[in-house]
Amino acid sequence: MSQLARHRVPSLADALDLLRQGAVPMGAGMDLLETIAEGLAHPAAAVETGEIAEMAGVRDDAHGALRIGASVTLTELSAHPVVRERFGVLAEACEAAGPGDAGAGTLGGTLCQRPRCSYFRGNVPCFKTGGDSCPAVEGDNRHLAIVEGGPCWIVHPSDVAASLVALDAVFEIAGPTGTRDMSAAGFFVLPTERLDHENVLAADELLVAVRLPADSAGGRQRFARVAADAPMQFSAVSLAAVRHPDGEVRLVLGGVSPRPWRVRSSIEEETMTGGLDEDSIESLADRALYDAQPLRDNGYKVDLAAALLRDAIRELSRG
């Protein structure tokens, strides 16, 4: 790590130029430095993004939308009065990261962090490290995916990511040809799409900001999680649940898939109808997880996810 050249740049253009030369982006740097120490990343240079204006601050426009720079820390977001008032599910997810090092992480950092699979982090040969198998299938799979898994069964470690999918957020991505927008749901990819990374970013692209649309503000929002057992530091299962002011419902689970996993729209639509009795609520939660395919030791996640969904459906179906 001592040989890593760190460049503090004043502009987005300077950062993109260094990325084109092979440098990697660095916010708070926690995950990057961990992956270097673990032998998973070998960059010669890093671009410190904390002073880039386009990646800083929380900006509220006249129409009620919010733009959050990728360099804003989770601690800042969890305490921001506008975020807490209008986008509570995001504030709660950021708060769940905890104080200290976790809370000092940046929005961009948590969204782009690498998986926490013990085999991957241990640099054991696997699909993610260039191997030809997933040792977790027959090994320690307690914390891995129960839906959309295969050939690699990692889960995305960011609860904040699930909250942004529930809020229909838009991600601003800067690259050599300019800036493009990507839906939060479209930003994250499955191992069947690419094994070298967990999102759509190319090596010369940078996540600059996240925009929260005005019509996602308010309504009824809740975030819930069940922490993984020690020494894991992330959620075993989490749920971001939103009923937008127009009645639309979003139910997005974290910790169950290689990406934030939105339940089928039919479940959300039935939740919108309201007036559900306990049998209907339980049936909806069970149906939401009908396609779950747990591995040998992570079936408990199906039960945890169903319990979180029952609570959220009960609350959101009240109208």
- Radius of gyration from the CA trace? 19 Å
* Poorly predicted regions: none
The percent range for helix content is: 25-40%
- Biggest β-sheet strands, sense, barrel: 5 strands, antiparallel
Q: Number of helical runs?
A: 13
Overview of this structure, please?
There is one protein chain. The protein has about 325 residues and is α+β, with helices and mostly antiparallel strands. The chain is about 30% helix and about 20% strand. The chain is built from 13 helices and twelve strands. It has helices spanning about 10-20, 30-35, 75-80, 80-85, 90-95, 100-105, 105-110, 120, 160-165, 185, 265-275, 280-290, 300-315; strands at about 5-10, 25, 45-50, 60, 65-70, 170-175, 180-185, 205-210, 220-225, 235-245, 250-255, 260. The strands form three sheets. A five-stranded antiparallel beta sheet has the order 4-5-8-6-7. A hairpin with a 6-residue loop joins strand 11 (about 250-255) and strand 12. The longest helix is centred in the C-terminal third of the chain and has 17 residues, at about 300-315. The radius of gyration is 19 Å and the shape is globular. The N and C termini lie far apart (about 55 Å). The mean pLDDT is about 90.
